[in-house]
Design goal:
The protein has about 180 residues and is mainly β. The protein contains 1 helix and 12 strands. It starts with a helix and ends in a 9-residue tail after the last strand.
Amino acid sequence: MSVQRRRALTAIAAIATVGALAGAALLVLPAQATQPPPTPPVTTTILARSLFDAIHVNAHAHTADRWKAQLKTHGLSDVYVVDNKFPPQASTGWHSHPGPSLILVVAGTVTNYLGDYPSCTPHTYATGAGFIDPGGGDVDLLRNETGAPAETIAVQLLPKDAARRIDVPDPGTCPF
């Protein structure tokens, strides 16, 4: 056998070996699917917590629409001011509170879902809007469904030493 022929056969054998090894690697190693990065969590910072005696407020203002406010508690109350920062696509998860929360949207847009709405109707609030989470066992989930950060400030009125937030199982009313 000539030297040239041996070299050609050696080259063909080397190429075949490399090809066989590459093919075997493809069969043995499963394809790695690219998973989306996990959604960053909502960052919650308690800005203030104060203890209040029983509250009995009956306020009014002499305006054209005769504005009034009434607030009455029995026993001691913890009042919290809480800052919640929502990265894009972040969610609070399903939860409840033992008392009411006044929610102020101070940046971006958040969408609130109520656990007892079988139609999963969203309620969307943008910067400058506010809403009330009545607490007392009502279940909800807040989401930032945008590509920009969002932020809320919550003022929570709770029974003294009660859990500020109670995580609850998914009520199954929304497809996410």
